[in-house]
Write a structure and sequence with these properties.
Blueprint lengths: L12 H7 L16 E3 L8 E4 L4 E4 L4 E6 L15 E3 L3 E2 L16 E9 L8 E6 L5 E6 L2 E2 L3 E2 L5 E4 L8 E9 L24 E2 L3 E6 L2 E11 L8 E11 L3 E11 L2 E12 L2 E10 L16 E9 L2 E10 L4 E4 L2 E4 L2 E2 L2 E6 L12 H14 L4 E4 L6 H10 L2 E5 L9 H18 L5 E5 L9 H14 L5 E5 L1 H5 L1 H4 L4 E5 L20 E5 L22 H18 L5 E6 L5 E2 L8 E2 L15 H4 L10 E3 L14 E8 L3 E6 L2 E6 L14 E5 L9 E7 L2 E8 L7 E6 L3 E3 L5 E9 L12 E7 L2 E4 L4 E2 L6 E8 L5 E9 L3 E10 L8
Helix pairs in contact: 2-3, 4-5
């Protein structure tokens, strides 16, 4: 006999059904239960509890920032009226784009928020969800302390149901920005022991979530045998989390393409008295589906619904992609075809705010990597990065290495336990992302610890057996790897030079898939040692011209050996660091910290399809200043995806160029080289015409006459949310008359804002150290609407203006 579903003590069946937000509403079979998200512009997630029995309030607005923690600041009665109201994400300290001082944020900080529980959430279980707080958080709600959490790169979730009041509630957070015993920090040597800085603050979104007494959680929708149509399926597992609810129920899983149901599975379950009940279903072969790949990132939804008494009470929607990714001794294979990994490492640090940029800005990095740098792979170095970035990678077709926090150091038993916890939290959060193809379960470049890394690998396999594990090795660990290797894919950070000063690539180790996790960086290939090559736009010109060549050499040399899966070079963007820095900014990026490409990016920018976008980008500046009076030199590189280049100097034919496929046979588009050692006294002009199929498809001009320089100004977006939680980048440059950067321009750029906007950045901004370019970000003031005009003024080059509109339409959803 079928058992009845038992409601929590004190609730009638009618009350329980109402707590599940059902009533007598009839639901169409082809619709996902309508979720309600109040407020706007959070990161959202492709994997969220959903349905009428789920409510999510984005808690990014109307926080009170008290500053450094003081006595009584977390008490509900504390008078916070005099303190600043802020929106999230938020950095606890004001920063410039360089010269950061970690002593300024190594304190305890207090944030507070007053709220009344929305009517739609009353009678439900309520949770507080932090996407990321740097580097630890201890919440208090209505004077009830919740357990402290350390670690700033992964979410933490608290149930606060029993602590809530009918009227006003007060959340107070003690944010710990100190050097804590948690990955990647904890070394007795302090912040100088890791290669990146960690400014304190609430750097990701906060959510208030409400669910019924019994709800679906931890859905993992794993495609299996995706290349065999008859066996293709989705293995769905989930947890039914219950408080005082027992009895029989039904779980229904559906694979959906928009509103179209492609496959369905049902299972009867019995919910226990308390805690989680495991449930597993198999969605049968959906027939003809599109595979997820960099060229065609097809995505589908899996909707898992809990039914009680024949009616749906809660559902959970997650987004997936069908793809088979395999690292083998013969290379990397995606969907049965070998794919050479062509990627860059990415840090999530930004000027002015550290990690505290909104989802729009995070997603922009994925767009730059995929569309501007033509990468098919990114390594999230050296910590799990925001889900907004991973969501963008899913949508764009950018393969991802997801990695636990860590950098060379391994701590005590408490530290190790937290590293294992981070493996669990990372995989539970990210395992539905089709872009993620490998788990980094070893702290970056750390010494071997067989027991620890055997444990992290085992945890990864238990939670997700569909992806391999890895972790980067360096010279010292490579020599002894056979004695203590515990991961699946051998990944090596290859920093060594050949005797001729070119990039060296070691051959693969035997018997394991082999991937180069880092190369180039700031390694000094001339001296064949040290990491002091600082690729500053305002720095050494000859060094900057070499950066793109080194990256081209690394990818080309790896291409000689089909057993090497590919190269993930170091790195995409400059970032704040104490190690080998210039004014606390490390400069190995092919783009600067503002995400503006340097000459080093010219190699990556030229690797795209010329039929989609022909490219001609010199690996040098056309600027005959004091450091280069004879021009860029005899062996000057031009990067292009054209078949032939015609070069003109001062209007006269100078050279006809073919790509150097002899020395770079393994690149999609080899560089061109030309002798441009020229007397610059007459300020000659440069023109380069690119030909494909015998036709001129692109012509570019460059001026060396500074008298015609100009100031350019551009915003990434024409519209952002007007609630204070969104932002867009504004790039300013001193350029020649044709739009190419003038790297040695100086002067201060000042900004004037008209409208309900706030500038995030230095004002005025000195161009001296940034190489004639820079960036700031524009946010809206809370409640702001209409146009915001930003005017940038240079003392010699005049003013330029850009307009961004603040919209309220984003308040309709939370992503």
């Amino acid at each position: 006999m079928k058992k009845n579903m038992h409601q929590p003590s004190g609730l009638t069946r009618r009350d329980f059904m109402q707590s599940c937000a059902l009533g007598a509403v009839a639901l169409a079979s082809d619709s996902v239960l309508g979720s309600r998200i109040f407020a706007a512009t959070g990161s959202g997630s492709a994997n969220i509890p959903n349905g009428p029995a789920s409510r999510r309030v984005l808690f990014n607005k109307d926080w009170v920032f008290v500053g450094k923690t003081s006595t009584g600041a977390t008490a509900a009665s504390f008078n916070d009226a005099k303190f600043n109201r802020v929106t999230l994400p938020h950095s606890a300290v004001k920063l410039s784009w360089q010269n950061w001082d970690y002593h300024k944020w190594h304190h305890l900080w207090t944030y507070r928020k007053h709220f009344t529980l929305p009517k739609e959430m009353r009678g439900m279980r309520v949770f507080l969800y932090f996407e990321g707080v740097m580097a630890g958080v201890a919440p208090t709600i209505n004077d009830r302390k919740l357990p402290a959490h350390t670690g700033g790169y992964l979410p933490v979730r608290y149930e606060i149901t029993s602590h809530l009041k009918d009227g006003k509630n007060v959340i107070a957070l003690e944010v710990d920005g100190r050097w804590l015993n948690t990955p990647p920090s904890g070394s007795p040597e302090g912040p100088r022991n890791i290669d990146f800085l960690e400014p304190a603050g609430i750097h990701r979104s906060v959510w208030l979530e409400a669910v019924p007494a019994a709800y679906i959680n931890n859905v993992f929708a794993k495609p299996a045998d995706v290349l065999q149509q008859s066996r293709r399926r989705v293995e769905v597992s989930c947890t039914l989390d219950s408080t005082g609810v027992t009895g029989d129920a039904q779980v229904v899983a559906e694979l959906r393409d928009g509103t179209r149901v492609l496959a369905q599975a049902k299972k009867q379950v019995s919910i226990g008295k308390k805690g989680g009940t495991k449930c597993a279903l198999v969605l049968p072969s959906p027939g003809d589906i599109g595979l997820w790949s960099p060229d065609s990132p097809q995505l589908y939804d899996v909707v898992t619904t809990l039914h009680v008494g024949g009616q749906p009470v809660h559902d959970y929607k997650t987004r997936i992609g069908f793809r088979e990714a395999k690292f083998t001794v013969d290379g990397f294979f995606l969907n049965g075809k070998r794919l050479q990994i062509f990627g860059l490492n990415r840090h999530e640090l930004y000027p002015y705010v550290g990690y505290a940029m909104p989802p729009r800005v995070m997603r922009r990095d994925a767009e730059i990597l995929k569309h501007e740098f033509n990468c098919n792979f990114v390594r999230c170095s050296h910590y799990p990065q925001t889900e907004a970035f991973l969501d963008a990678c899913d949508e764009l077709g950018l393969l991802v290495w997801d990695e636990i926090p860590g950098w060379q150091y391994i701590g005590d038993d408490t530290w190790k336990n937290r590293l294992v916890r981070d493996v669990i939290d990372m995989i539970m959060r990210d395992r539905n992302h089709p872009s993620v193809v490998i788990w980094g379960t070893r702290a970056n470049e750390s010494k071997s610890d067989v027991e620890l890394y055997r444990k992290t690998r085992a945890v990864a396999k238990r939670l997700d057996g569909s992806r391999p594990t890895s972790g980067t090795m360096t010279n010292g660990t490579r020599r002894t790897w056979k004695d203590n290797w515990e991961e699946d894919v051998f990944t090596y950070d290859d920093y060594h030079a050949e005797p001729d000063g070119t990039v060296g690539i070691f051959p693969p180790v035997e018997g394991h898939p082999y991937l180069i996790g880092e190369a180039v960086g700031q390694f000094n290939y001339k001296r064949r040692r040290d990491f002091d090559s600082k690729y500053r736009r305002a720095g050494d010109v000859a060094l900057q011209q070499n950066q793109a060549i080194y990256h081209a050499q690394a990818h080309n040399k790896a291409g000689y050996d089909p057993n090497i899966c590919g190269v993930i070079a170091w790195c995409a963007f400059d970032y704040a660091s104490i190690i080998n820095n210039y004014n606390m900014m490390k400069c190995p990026g092919v783009a600067d910290c503002f995400r503006i490409p340097k000459p080093g990016a010219s190699f990556y920018r030229a690797q795209g399809d010329p039929s989609a976008r022909p490219v001609i980008i010199p690996g040098f500046y056309w600027d005959f200043n004091g450091s280069m009076p004879m021009g860029p030199g005899k062996q000057s590189a031009i990067f292009s995806n054209c078949e032939r280049l015609e070069v003109f100097v001062d209007g006269k034919k100078h050279a006809t160029l073919e790509p150097d496929t002899k020395n770079y046979p393994n690149l999609r588009h080899a560089p061109f080289f030309v002798d441009l050692e020229i007397d610059g006294a007459m300020r000659p002009g440069l023109k380069i015409d690119g030909y494909v199929g015998g036709k001129c498809v692109l012509s570019r001009q460059f001026s060396s006459n500074p008298a015609r320089d100009r100031l350019s100004l551009a915003a990434d977006d024409t519209e952002i949310a007007g609630d204070g939680t969104d932002a867009t980048r504004i790039v300013f440059k001193v350029t020649d008359e044709f739009g190419s950067e003038r790297a040695f321009a100086s002067g201060d750029v000042t900004f004037e804002i008209k409208g309900a906007g706030v500038l995030v950045g230095d004002n005025p901004f000195s161009l001296a150290d940034s190489g004639g370019v820079g960036g700031v970000w524009l946010k809206g003031k809370p409640g702001g609407t209409g146009a915001v005009t930003v005017t940038a003024t240079h003392p010699r080059l005049g003013s330029q203006t850009v307009t961004v509109n603040l919209s309220t339409r984003y308040d309709a959803f939370g992503a």
